[in-house]
Amino acid sequence: MQLKKMLEGFDYTVKSGSVDIEVNHIVMDSRKAEAKDVFVCITGAVRDAHDFVPDVIDKGVAAIVVEKDVEVTKDVTVIKVENTRYALACMSAAYFDHPAKKLKTIGITGTKGKTTSTYMVRSVLEGVGIKTGLIGTIETIIGDTRIPSENTTPESYLVQEYFAKMVEEGCQAVVMEVSSQGLMLDRVSGFVFDYGVFTNLSPDHIGPNEHKDFEDYANCKAKLFRNCRHGIFNIDDPYAERMLEDCTCDVETYGVKEMGNEPDFQADQIHLFKKPGILGVAYQLSGKLNMEVEIDVPGKFSVYNSLAAIAICSHFTENQQVIEQALADIRVKGRVEILSVYPKFTLMIDYAHNAMSLESLLKSLREYEPHRIVTVFGCGGNRDRNRRFEMGEVSSRLADLSIITSDNPRDEEPMAIIEDILQGVKKAEGAYVTIPDRKEAIRYAIEHGEEGDIIILAGKGHEDYQIIKGVKYHMDERELVAEIKKEIEESKR
Fold first, then answer.
1. In the predicted structure, residue 45 carries a pLDDT above the cut 90
2. What is the tens place of the pLDDT at every residue in 385-398?
3. Which of 129, 134, 368, 437 has its CA 20 to 30 A from that of 118?
4. Residue 267: helix, strand or coil by DSSP?
């Protein structure tokens, strides 16, 4: 592809060489650079690709895109830009022939609810015959192919590559989670979303290598609504007005009647229900659509997730029956995922891995009036210690029994992490036990489960691994539960 064609979407300066040359590939990793490639220098948290310019020149790259001055000793084209991440996004879109223009693109941002909402949207759109790709925290879905995710929002080159593959597979739409990091690092630049959705906002991802403060976090989230044609907002969230301040898109809103706003999509007559192996929520929808909605996913937060999905899907179909059925059938791995193990109690897996998400989950489950709420959780090593104190305090305050165990200890000693969690646990009155081995902790919860309990395995969610001393070990809680059940049954024979 001609380099000049790749550079059409942004301003640049030619420091040396010519843009009227052919290049083979775009690369960001110097180890993968080959002759006639264009190397884009990304400044990362750990490494600065500008330092590897001599290496890629020796490999014969045809051009280098930089945001800092570099010295070159051979005949190579050097393009200087203000922001190489933005340049990479625009170049990648051009390289793959702007696939986003051939799809209806839907981006969902917010602190909570992104993952579930994306699956709800995809389920509805597929239900009305619109083949839809998905990019998110758990996986990327392209036709029948499922690719495990490393980042909620991949690097811009990968986003564009996925879009292109979706077009090849005959997809007509794509729904994706848009993280604050993805927005901050221009991973979703180079195209305009058809629809952007705001779910909610609360402090998260603040710290080294993330966001310097809450204001920075909020500013990054708001970028989506300056880069989409139609915005859909949870008007009940305290930060909705903040998201709306500088938006340049058309606006629609959703919310709950009791909150006192007048959204375009409004939920009323909300009621929780229980069925064997199911905790759900139902409500009456009014406004731009009028229908009864029932979701087999617990918690009032599920109302907001479904409202977001309905608001989006109303632009694609008028078939309310398909919407109703698709929402009723929703199951998302690791998001209040109920495992049918024993009829006397409810056992679920959830990704709640910080105090905010755990508190939201426990308060929602308390409304189902369980006999007891039992939590099984730990905290990750090499992460902010405050999260441990906070999660311990929340669980002790809102659960009846906390079983403190290991999560991803990484380079730390599991018991050191547990001791930190216990400092928070002891600030409240809840009962607790400590069992460092996660499988044994789950076994304890199951063997001591009582009639009417809700037992939550929190923190791992969709993850199927545990990281110990730099080594990633396979560990899927669904498999652990199945093993424990089998072992318990065999011991009774």
1. no
2. 999 999 999 999 99
3. 368
4. strand
